[in-house]
Amino acid sequence: MSNIVPKGWEKEIAQRETRVAEALRQAGADAILISGNANLYYITGRVIAGYVLVTAQGEVKHFVRRPVELEGDNVAYIRKPEQIAEMLGSVPGTLALEYDMSYADIMRLQAAFPGAKFVNGSAIMRSVRAVKTPFELDLIRRSGVSHAMSYKSIPHIFSEGMSDVELQVELEHRLRLDGCLGLFRISGQSMELFMGNILAGDNADNPAPYDFAMGGAGMDKSIPIGANGTIIKPGMTIMVDACGNFTGYMTDMSRSYKVGEVGELAERAHRCSVEICHKIAQTARPGVAAKDLVALAEATVAEAGLADYFMGHKQKAGFIGHGVGIEINELPVLSARSKDVLVEGNVIALEPKFVIPGVGAVGIENTYAITATGTECLTNMPEDLQQLM
User: Is the pTM of this model over 0.85?
Assistant: First the structure.
């Protein structure tokens, strides 16, 4: 017996271990060595400092540096990764490593397993994690309920003369009081964000270096994304895309607000975003290609004459949605060049957004579970362009 798996998670983690073992066999790998926090959480139900080895036969061994209270037949304490091969007694013929770790870490692990052939374990784990279990779906649903509850406070915490940063701080406070864990996990070392993105007025048209649907200049060049101190005034829209991590599994949700009148173009673009979400929600189901959903969205935008503003104005995003779970950007990817095909158990965030110069960003984002017969919206709250004052 081992105490590494949290109570109540034992059957779930056993199921995940079986899934990873099956994926290893399909990839022709003998084992995978997991060390990234997101994948460690997936395969153990907790984050540790160390490694987890899963074999294609379903054997699991935990090599731990910290914390020290973990114990069990499959738990061994190590000081350095080179000890793992010594403890195993033999080297797997083909070993999968997470290739999204640093080059130095990859080289060190490869040197620790002389004679092994190495394959991309990151791709294996992303594929496995893309299909959520009922247990995972329940955690995401719970995040969605809390996420929506927090957003309902936005009209009450807004006050005249606020800046976008002040609104974000107030919303972050509300989120944390409602149980948000605050951690916004993103796959990829080149993307960073703190608890989400609030964009007021023309700041939404400021290009960011990150592969996000919306940009914003940010408060400092060290994190050039999101709110930049814009004072919220009549004639502006405010898009709220804040952290929905209440259970270790996230929902992704955006809602747009207006101060005063924002013009017919912004109103029409917002309605188009809602229409796209509804069309895709009715169309998406197992077996549907992600690129076909993008084509549906683009056709709707073209018919409305809004292509110049879709997914950005000065700088456009190359996708309209993405998988979500432990990290905010998982598989599948909804882009025109995507080769992904939806399967039951996928969870996708759909974000057909627009940027209207001189006004700001409009549109919505919802998180949907792909079911056997269609979709289930996990972020249920009003979708209209809501009036703040």
Answer: yes
